[in-house]
Design a protein that fits this description.
The complex is a heterodimer of chains A (197) and B (181). Helix content of chain A is 41%, strand content 16%. Chain A is α/β, with parallel strands linked by helices. In chain A, helix 2 packs parallel to helix 3. With 181 residues, chain B is of the alpha/beta class. Classes of the chains: A alpha/beta (197), B alpha/beta (181). Chains A and B meet through helix 4, helix 6 and helix 9 of A and helix 3 and helix 5 of B.
Amino acid sequence: MVSPAIADALMKPEDVLRTIAAVRGPAICIPTMTTAPAWRTIAPDDLSVACVGFMGGASTLGLGLALGSPDRRVIVFDGDGSLCMQLGSLPTIGGVAPRNFTHLLFKNNVYHTSGSQGTPGGDGVDYAMMAKAAGYRQVFTVRTLEELKARLPTILDGEGPVFGELHTGLAETTPMQDRSGVPFHQQVDKLRARLVP
Amino acid sequence: MPKPESVPASLIIDTFKDVFRAERDGARRQDPLGWIISVPDTHQKTVLAALDKERDVRVLTCSTEDEANGVAAGLWMTGEPVIVMIQHAGLYASVNTLRGIAMDGRVPVFYMIGLLSREPDKDPLESRHSMVRYCEPLLDLFGVPHARLEVPDDVKVIPQYYRLSRERRGPAAVLVGLPTN
């Protein structure tokens, strides 16, 4: 576990989401796990679909959306535990290299939802380096909101695939604590209705 | 049981194109005609090889079948025609994602599943290979409609089961009995 002093210095996931929500425009966003409850409060009526019920699937769900909507930015809010479950998605995404795809990794080094068990390799794992090696065009790591704000042009308009490793603390709420979300199939219907004329 | 035969890759690809054209009918976007999301399958390798030369159909190779389900779902949400090509072992590996996306998520996902090691002289349910024998019972357990592609004339099940997946908003599968040629 991270010490309280270090945890206080880390970005709050909710602050990261608010920062992106303020500027994201018509981008499709795919939150998963602990970003999902906060995102539906911060951006309640928009082009989003949460990866719920198939942990690890956010990155490839986003890849499909990006390939099918080449004129629209797609931003995935992934988790380190989630990405580990489909780590092969990095070369899959790097290989097809959609220019409108941004993959943000909220790295807190634990499986927060299931009780904060440590992720494999913990803080020592460099996912940004993995993404670079897998073929992402732009990768970066940020630890503060100021650094994040400086990267917003890349996140929103940079030539993708873009990968950002965001070192964050724990979310205020997990999906197990807040189960008020709309079922996945209803989110799917809502988003498809807005994307398919 | 009719003696199974290899189905030509060209016949399968022409059928895929017909399926895609039917779904694209009147759509603004026509390029690509459709998407094949695959995890390589020995049984359907001649189809995958021939698809590499196709300009109208875009093929995306995934690392895992879990990923293939996710990509297919995202594409469908944007209105794109898509077929997933995997083998039976990949079906077993990705059951949770099939459940989460195609069943609970009510996303139509159409699978072409190769039955590697299926013996031509045996019904798949009587195969000595567990990965052949358990495929149809697993699909039955999850309520996934499926049909066998055993002879060239069976290609008609491809559009039938593709449409079925769209009509019932869920998974549907065609099982490829012998290696394609």
